[in-house]
Amino acid sequence: MLTSIKTNEFAGSESKKLAMMYFRVAIILFGAQLLMGLIAAIQFLVPGFLFELFDFSVARMVHINALVVWMLYAMIGSVYYMLPDETGIETVGIGIGKLAFWVFTAAITVVVLVYIFVQVGAGTEATIWFINEGREYIEAPRWADIGIVVVVLIFYWNVFATFMKGTQTGIMTVMVANLMALAGLYLTGMFFTDNISMDQFWWWWVIHLWVEATWEVFVGTLAAYALIKIIGAKREIVEMWLWIEVLMLFGSGVLGLGHHYFWIGTPEYWWEIGALFSALEPVPLVAMFVHVLYDWGKEQGETHAKDSTAHAINNGPAMAWIVTNAFGNFLGAGIWGFFHTLPQVNIYTHGTQFTAAHGHLAFFGAYATILIGMMYMGIQGAYGVERLKATFKSKMAIFMIVFGVLGMGVALTISGYEQVLVERAELGGGWNAFFTAQELPWYIQGMVWRAIMGVVTFVGFVYLVWDLLTIGKLSKAAEA
Amino acid sequence: MLFEPFTDVVPSFFGWLNQGPLTLTIFLHTVIILPMFWIYFQEKKKLQGK
Amino acid sequence: MAKENLSVWTSIPFWRRSAAWVTGFAVILLIWLTFDTMGQISMGTDEDLKNGVDKRVPAATVINYNIDYQMSKKRGHEVPVIGKKEPFFGKEWSGEEAAALLHLGKLTSQAKNCMNCHTLLGNGAYYAPDLTKAWIDPMWKDGGPMQGMTGKSTKEEAMAEFLMNPSQYPTHARMMPNLGITADEAKGLVAFLKHMSSIDTNGFPRNFSKTVEQFKAGGTNAH
Predict the structure, then answer these.
(1) Touching check for C85 and chain A: CB below 8 Å?
(2) How confident is the model at residue C211 (pLDDT cuts 50, 70, 90)?
(3) pLDDT the model gives residue B3
(4) What is the CATH number of the domain that holds A132?
(5) Disulfide: which of A161, A473, B12, C105 matches C192 by Cβ 3.0-4.6 Å?
(6) Which residues contact A183 (CB under 8 A, 6 or more apart)?
(7) Between B7, B8, B28, which is nearest A273 by CB?
(8) Does residue A4 register a pLDDT over 80?
(9) Which DSSP string do the residues of A30-55 spell out, in sequence order?
């Protein structure tokens, strides 16, 4: 991965080189996310750890911001990677795209340094502009918001101009339309209001309509592209599925936004809208899982019929992560989301570790997995490897990361369950209820297991980075 | 009683459609799905016309 | 081509058109719903408070009133009940003063990153108590533990004192860090919390702090 710029196997595709630059920053931020998560997990168990030095709020803020930003980086990288393949031409205006990359990366570095060393500011507009905005997931200060908008506009122009000039496939049609929505939604999170209900109403427009609508469609597009590249799936079938996914994801996800409007001061009619629309959100995720496995089986069968020793898959690790994505999306986003999406349940689960369990499983299952898969595709392209086979390190990486995140999800679910029953159902919330539940042995055991599983995930991450750095060179040498 | 008394704070069109278990959401789902029948038959006609 | 071989279900144009229709119409509905909700959650006025008009989000001057959270038979869950006037930091706040104080408080809540430990209206991090109804939490009531610990005789003064020096008044091994909150900012934050407790959250949290005392005493409802 590090040497991919020099080896230059992309036959001059600057777009793919830029993709690799985005992937590299993404994986570094992924590491930062895990480290911050470990600090926060320890603070749950040892409250004095880094107290008034690097408090939970700081660790947690960097944890979730690194998450969002590494995913955006890997998503942008994936788009730059697939653009030349889909449109058949080199990306238009790639020079300014590269400039935007450096501006974006410099801005992110400054933002993170300010988060870590300045942490909080006075209660003034200046803090909102220069230190942090204090709104979960989109804490980035206003100056950085504006910077992000400019960078995204440049990125979008790259994509749009290339799309208009080159071949217009169904996959790219969905991509171009979806990216416009994704970028536009960010604007709804860029204002200040004294009204906390209004604040959270629009805040959810960004968060929900990203992760439960536009990001999901984005994953559908990536999976469609990857299936064509990795197992040679038929474009007509893949694109038909993609439209079905768009229909179901947006059909359920857009009004599914209502499940965030149960308790923030918004009218009661959101109970019904949020309940049934969001209850249908898992349906497209099942469809995506079936689709991936069906295509895999079909292509493998056809290849096998021609040559009984051949494999349909030309990139083992990427395919493994994409299949993990198909199942993880359904499990983490679908099942764990459905657990607490009905208002009758949510009135007790809202704002407990239950949500944290769902957050961990969903972000990982739905997004981290496929983005790691795209990184393996990038490696394959960078080194010009015909068939990338999983190494021991690839297997350790996927096994330990999946096991670790699943373990964290289950542990948090158990802690959350305790919290729901004792703090909420029995004690009705409030200060005392909160701390009473935090001291329950079964709650604490869950938090211990969460920390242990966090370490397992981190070891898996080390294997992942190690593998990404070495697998390309090894495979190329083996093929030669 | 056919219509439930309105319980939310402020009366509104959507609040009025919210007449008890699932009335509002089923109504919205129906108006979203129904036009797909029309799209279906139109596409069918196109395919058969080929 | 024979008629029976034509299936709309495998036709890309059918799914593309359906996707466009469903997405477009869902977005239109969402925008319509958003306008309807905007009207309902915009802040009320001081007149509404004086005339007893229920608003989901009352005016900032709600800090001049007593706020309770009671079961409503009609709604089927607890709702905020805005009662008689009461002094807030020893005085009645005019419309402009109250709005300015709430503005300072909301800004401070973001500047100090409250949401990355606490939950506000149930959203945020899960490291510290939910603040939706913090104003009416039994911890802060007259004669309650926090007034005793901070040596203050009103709820608002106790809260402000705690916010300025949180790690001096620990209630649990997990403490709130000192965030450099000034006296003015602390007043603003208390106003922000009081205002938030007056928001109609459709009954969240349910049975708020009802049974803590029974639970602490090791008792049950059975006698």
Answers:
(1) no
(2) low
(3) 57
(4) 1.20.210.10
(5) C105
(6) A149, A152, A153, A156
(7) B28
(8) no
(9) HHHHHHHHHHHHHHHH-TTTTTTTS-
Of C37, C104, C196, nearest to A123 by CB-CB distance is: C104
Q: Is the pLDDT of residue C181 over 90?
A: yes
| Cα atoms found within 13 Å of the Cα of residue A185, Cβ hemisphere only | 24
In this prediction, residue A353 carries a pLDDT of 96
In a domain, C1, yes or no: no
Look at A71-85, A142-156, C1-15 and tell me which has the smallest mean pLDDT: C1-15
Instruction: State the residue for tokens 């990216």.
Output: A179
| In a domain? residue B38 | yes
In a domain, B45, yes or no: yes
Peptide bond into C205 cis (omega under 30): yes
**C14 CA: distance to closest CA in chain B (Å):** 6
Which residues of C are less than 8 Å from B8 in CB distance?
75
The answer to whether A84 and A90 have CB atoms below 8 angstroms apart is yes
Q: What is the pLDDT of residues A313-366, one digit of tens each?
A: 999 999 999 999 999 999 999 999 999 999 999 999 999 999 999 999 999 999
B interface mutation test: which of C4, C7, C8, C200 has the most B CBs within 10 A? C8
Mutate to test the interface with C, among A174, A270, A432, A450 (most CBs of C within 10 A): A432
Q: Which of A251, A268, A276 sits opposite B18 (nearest CB)?
A: A268
Same domain as C154, residue C94: yes
Q: Are residues C88 and C112 in the same domain?
A: yes
Q: Are residues C171 and C101 in the same domain?
A: yes
Q: What is the pLDDT averaged over residues A117-145? A: 94
Residues C94 and C135 reside in one and the same domain: yes
Instruction: Name the more confident of A36 and A13.
Output: A36
Question: Is A192 within the bounds of a domain?
Answer: no
Whether residues C135 and C187 fall in one domain: yes
Contacts of C28 (CB under 8 A, 6+ apart): none
Amino acid B20: pLDDT: 74
Give C105: exposed, middle or buried? Use CB within 10 Å, 0-12, 13-18, 19+: buried
| Enclosing domain of residue C23 | 13-40
Q: Which structural domain range is residue B40 located in?
A: 22-49
Pair C139, C204 in one domain: yes
Do C59 and C103 lie in one domain? The reply is: yes
Q: Which residues of B touch A272 (CB under 8 A)?
A: 18, 22-25
- A13 domain-assigned: yes
Residues A268, B22: C-beta atoms closer than 8 Å: no
Please tell me the pTM assigned to this model: 0.94
Residue % of chain A over a pLDDT of 70: 98
Residues C28 and C84 in one domain: no
Residue B9 lies in a domain: no
Tally of domains in chain A: 1
Tokens 């009135």 — which residue?
Answer: A347
Residue A274: what pLDDT?
93
If one counts the domains in chain B, the total is: 1
Q: Is residue A129 part of a domain?
A: yes
Whether A273 shows a pLDDT value over 90: the answer reads yes
pLDDT of the residue at C2: 45
- What are the helix (H) ranges across chain C? 12-41, 46-50, 95-111, 145-150, 155-164, 183-197, 212-216
